[in-house]
């Protein structure tokens, strides 16, 4: 065996040895079960140190290419995968289409309807710094379980942040979660049983629909208007069906981008009190807004509102960090379930978020996002109008605009989108029963991409039949 | 205002300014709502740069001490916490005692019965390094959601590792989870409904009992012997009750430390086939063992065994990383529920684990743990015998030994333990119905601590009545 090692290369010698050994085995000059040269022999033959060979062999053992047999040396592994996993068909193909956008997207499509901001907009360097800081901090954060209610330092920061937006609670009312959807799951499991009824917005958050369906909870639809749910419909549904609770996005509603007006907010709270229902207020876009805004949790005086939030949209979806606020007795039940169903959240990722809140780097990063989003929203509204599209409402912030192109159905729009390498999500996904719709949730952060612009251009012509 | 800044100090100027401003406010020389000096004024007065003042004010805003009002400057926050959260009574006190050991332990007690290894034994430096490597890697790992089945690179590593212990599956059969307890929760929600019956080991894993109780699943107890569950009892229960599945720790059983013999393993698989029940094999201590060992998943030829594992015990409980292996159709259902109930696992922490598997640092760290555990196990068995204790069986590895001190009940033992600052978990925690027990799960990694030795010493005398 002769390896060609380049001592001037920026690739470490160990890696060169490992790579070339593997290439050699791959070309079947070595068969499964073959014994490799001893560490000493290979080191002498190639003029490298024994520790270099040990390290290279170790890496190939870790990759499953070699096997170490105690006292006998290193052998080509018997059970090698014939192909690396990345070359196999994506296993996620077996899953329903609804999760397709969560899979890595090898086709380089522009996901114009997705629910997150571009990587380049986000505070990746600040996150990386916080990660490194936590890696140098107390060992507990690298090794230990997190307390049931969440990391005290994170909860203390959340408590301050809630106070700043006018939500006055005790620290005992804050429970950390792995994102808002985990919080929703804990709530649904704790508050609802199969057959119960819940008021949901229509259009609305599709993963809430999935969750409620999974729990066999019946959904009653509140039509979303530009100022919030239609309160007359809400009143009728409350009287007729006696639902257990009501779910709402007050701010920058998903998918319409509309926000609750104070009048609608007060009426909803009044109705909730009269009919004794709980409100789940999902406020995951809270930090896209600076300063005072109409929120049910701010106006609530009787712990009727359960407040949910998350760092997935404004910071990172990878860290899985969110929280919820509720009455202390409910928090205790939710925390029990959180432990029973998974022994809690990640202490490491909670410390990363706490670090960014404490250092102010989170605050700075959202302060940079807001004007950028506002600029893209204004541009998007102008371009959609110029292209003959109709918008549901003109959002005053956030990332979504809900729009349709008169004369075009989803199938026709989708053909044009595919031709421009643009991925669309059907409007039906945002309907509780999956009814067809010609509305699209457009994420304004992606509309200036040339693929999206080309798509918009194509919709100026009448659809080809 | 006069701040005393020390330009020779190792504390950065920004921090000095922030700390001293906060101290000043704390001593109530500044009241809530008071306006602070402008950035320019404070900078001039203290002879520091404006950017230094901006940074200091920013930190105090992030801490909730100050508020920034757009265009008007900085003010002392209206809604300051009078005390920092860490000085409040621990909110976790409101939770049931069962989670006490998961809370930070300010009392410096030695947790002799806990379910994890000491920090000093674990590969914290290697974890920290992997964390830093991932922080410098692709942005997706810092920012994005993880695919439904888990990170492909981690699943590829897991696939190789499973092959190395003789579990032959396709990559489509591997689903990542936030630890084994999350995997169990997904399984219970997917496979069982209230009123269903499940065979559980007695003594056994208390969080499984909690989970099954939460789902209103009926538990039937299989007495654990030194060689595995009592197969005669299993046969009777299967005939009489037609349970849906059977849960087992094959290796280093929690809490007894015993392992399945091949004879019992074959008989269990035979019985499972005859009575058509599924087996959930929880193998979270797998990597405490090197090389071949009796496992149901290895012997299983008909996808009757669902295999669960985790990195919580051998690497880190903080990262929340585990996985499960099952038939492809079941994996699809579990992955759907994983997404519906929380939008998946943390891509960041999965990349950290994948990195440690690929580099071999995980393999090295468990290779260091094994002899250390074996040494502590041998020592513990000798010391317990010398102190007159009885052990259930002599485990050949792992961290638990199940032991009792004849003549002593739990209350008497606990009094002596408390006197030595040793925290015990009652044996009743490991009984499906919480029945009193004088057995203790002793974690051998902690028994050489002088507090544990003092406790052992005290049990050599007869209990005081």
Core attributes:
homodimer; 465 residues; alpha/beta; Arc Repressor Mutant, subunit A; Aspartate Aminotransferase, domain 2; 3 domains; three-stranded antiparallel sheet
Query: Helical segment tally of chain A?
Result: 16
Oligomer: homodimer
The side-by-side strand order for the widest beta sheet of chain A comes to 4-11-10-9-8-5-6-7
CATH homologous superfamily caption of the largest domain in chain A? Type I PLP-dependent aspartate aminotransferase-like (Major domain)
**Rough outline of chain A:** globular
At CATH's second level, what is the architecture of the largest domain in chain A? 3-Layer(aba) Sandwich
CATH class of the largest domain in chain A: Alpha Beta
Distance between the termini of chain A: 65 Å
| Percent range of helical residues of chain A | 40-55%
Q: Main sheet of chain A, how many strands, which sense, barrel?
A: 8 strands, mixed
How many structurally independent domains of chain A? 3
Q: Biggest interface between protein chains, with counts per chain?
A: A-B, 100 and 99 residues
């Amino acid at each position: 065996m002769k390896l060609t090692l380049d001592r001037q290369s920026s690739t470490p010698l160990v890696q060169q040895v490992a790579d070339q050994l593997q290439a050699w085995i791959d070309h079947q000059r070595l068969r499964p079960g073959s014994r490799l040269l001893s560490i000493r022999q290979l080191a002498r033959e190639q003029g490298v140190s024994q520790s270099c060979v040990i390290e290279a062999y170790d890496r190939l053992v870790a990759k499953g290419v070699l096997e170490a047999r105690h006292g006998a040396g290193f052998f080509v592994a018997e059970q090698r995968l014939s192909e690396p996993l990345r070359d196999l068909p994506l296993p996620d193909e077996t899953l329903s289409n609804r999760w397709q956008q969560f899979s890595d997207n090898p086709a380089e499509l522009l996901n114009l309807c997705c629910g997150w901001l571009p990587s380049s907009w986000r505070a990746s360097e600040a996150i990386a710094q916080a990660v490194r800081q936590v890696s140098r901090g107390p060992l507990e954060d690298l090794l230990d379980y997190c307390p049931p209610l969440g990391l005290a330092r994170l909860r203390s920061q959340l408590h301050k942040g809630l106070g700043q937006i006018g939500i006055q609670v005790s620290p005992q009312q804050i429970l950390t979660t792995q994102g808002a959807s985990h919080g929703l799951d804990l709530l649904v499991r704790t508050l609802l049983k199969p057959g119960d009824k819940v008021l949901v917005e229509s259009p609305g958050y599709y993963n809430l629909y999935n969750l409620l369906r999974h729990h066999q909870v019946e959904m009653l639809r509140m039509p979303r208007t530009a100022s919030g749910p239609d309160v007359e419909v809400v009143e009728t549904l409350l009287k007729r069906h006696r639902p257990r609770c009501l779910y709402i996005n007050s701010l920058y509603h998903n998918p319409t981008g509309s926000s609750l007006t104070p009048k609608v907010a007060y009426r909803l709270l009044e109705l909730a009190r009269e009919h004794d229902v709980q409100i789940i207020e999902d406020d995951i876009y809270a930090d896209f807004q600076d300063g005072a805004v109409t929120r049910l949790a701010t106006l609530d005086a009787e712990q009727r509102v359960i407040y949910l939030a998350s760092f997935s949209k404004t910071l990172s979806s990878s860290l899985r960090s969110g929280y919820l606020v509720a009455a202390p007795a409910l928090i205790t039940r939710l925390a029990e379930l959180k432990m029973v169903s998974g022994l809690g959240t990640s202490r490491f990722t909670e410390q990363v978020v706490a670090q960014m809140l404490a250092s102010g780097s989170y605050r700075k990063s959202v302060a940079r996002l807001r004007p950028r989003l506002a600029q893209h929203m204004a541009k998007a509204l102008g371009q959609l109008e110029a292209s003959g599209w109709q918008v549901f409402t003109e959002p005053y912030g956030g990332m979504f605009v809900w729009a349709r192109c008169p004369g075009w159905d989803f199938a026709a729009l989708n053909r044009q989108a595919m031709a421009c390498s643009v991925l669309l999500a059907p409007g039906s996904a945002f309907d509780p029963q999956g009814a067809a719709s010609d509305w699209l949730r457009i994420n304004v952060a992606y509309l200036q991409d040339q693929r999206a612009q080309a798509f918009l251009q194509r919709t100026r012509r009448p659809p080809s039949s």
